Amino acid sequence: MLNQSLKFPKADILVIDDTPENLNLLSAMLTEQGYKVRSVTKGSTGLRGANAVPPDLILLDVNMPEMNGYEVCQNLKANDRTREIPVIFISALGDVLDKIKAFAVGGVDYITKPFQLEEVLARIENHLTIRQLQQQLQAQNQQLQQEIHDRTKAEEKFAKVFRSSPNPIAIATVSEARFLDANPSFLRISGYSLEEVIGHTATELDFGKNTVAFAQKIQLLPKTGSLYNQEFEFSTKCGEVKTILISIELIDLAGVPCALLIANDITERKRLENEFISLVSHELRTPLTSTMGALDLLGAGQLGTLTAQGQKVLSIATTNTERLMRLVNDILDLERMKSGKIFMRRAKCNVAELLITATEAMQAMADKLQVQLIVNPLTIEFWADSDRLLQTLTNLLSNAIKFSEPGDRVWISAILSESKTVDSQENQNSLTSSPNYVLITIQDEGRGIPEDKLQIIFERFQQVDASDSRNKGGTGLGLAICRNIVQQHNGKIWVQSILGEGSTFYVLLPLTS
């Protein structure tokens, strides 16, 4: 134990006393208790020692030749290196004025000789503890000051980027989607002043038909996580409709969960993109039609008999031309829908007839691929564009059949949903109360869809596997068209899937227009 105490002393104590007997007594006593002790008989020597290697505590006599204890203490407190060292006076002087003077020059305690061993040890331990706590507090304060400095610098940097960014940026509370701040770019694109934005919710400001969905995405941020490059239609104060890409990050402001919204105006880009797609599609359709006609003539043998190799090449050319025709038609279809050039011609139609017609249309494909189609119709009438819904159902059935194995089954069914609306595909299977809906499901036993693809499967040119367009004959636009048709019926479409077990597509439609 003694060796351990010597190796790891509890503290370093400097004793300054001109009486050797006192020095020896204090040194022996403190060393026995596990302290490292340095003893000197002169005040000047003690000052040099304390400055060279500052001790944890100093025991100081008052009456000494050349330089008394008060002068030594004053010198210690005047030096930055030794100012914080606690000094305990030990003196035979017991007058109150002597004690007052000791405290006045910076002493922390005063012990009167003759002293008691236990009293000296208790006071030393007490002041060492106080000093240790002071050092911890100073370290914590320094750390806190550094954190405050770093945070202030970060906030200044963020504020500078926030204000000067060319991208529209705003901050809103998660709970109510209520705006707390907006940068000049956001104000320019929206047409609102800062006073008109701050304190108001997205719903109150009415940013267009996507306002409710926009607010819901903010409120669901703690559950769904960050949102990146989501396309929205944005209505300005003067009614101008813009297309924006918006990203949302969850941030914390003074303990309040907030959403950082960063937008990118892609209105002009979308216009050019749509014009380009429309132009290219129209320009492609005419030569493709001519090419298809020529291939039909070759296939009919009207231009001569082809060899077996020629028939094989002709078959490949016909298949690829048909796929290209489908792609062009799908692009035109989707662009006309998005631009409002295709209107839903709603009329009374029967759900059962739609399901049966869609099944009959896909029966030949199912038989060819040895897939069993099972239909569970629901006899109920509702207002819809039957041709467009039939297009949606046959598209979904076609996908289910294509991605099934021989012997698999595909179900199409409908139920009257008296108390079901859906929080869209982002919330997958969340169903809450709202009457007058029909829910159509298309379920398969195919390969399923990976979880990371569920959020983007309804976007244009998005496929589970890049080879699907080649192997399955898809264009990557079918589900985008389905979503557009369903949305124009004020309905919702989403999918649930388990990889390797199959997928279920849901189409929720209102019974009334």
Automatic annotation (TrEMBL):
Xref: PROSITE patterns: HIS_KIN (PS50109), PAS (PS50112), RESPONSE_REGULATORY (PS50110)
Sequence ranges assigned to domain Histidine kinase in this UniProt record: 279-513
Domain Response regulatory, residue spans: 12-128
Gene3D superfamilies: 1.10.287.130, 3.40.50.2300, Histidine kinase-like ATPase, C-terminal domain (3.30.565.10), PAS domain (3.30.450.20)
Domain PAS stretches: 154-201
Residue numbers carrying 4-aspartylphosphate: 61
Catalyzed reaction equations: ATP + protein L-histidine = ADP + protein N-phospho-L-histidine
Pfam families attached to this UniProt entry: HATPase_c, HisKA, PAS_8, Response_reg
EC number: 2.7.13.3
Coiled-coil annotated spans: 127-157
Protein's name in the database: histidine kinase
Organism: Nostoc paludosum FACHB-159
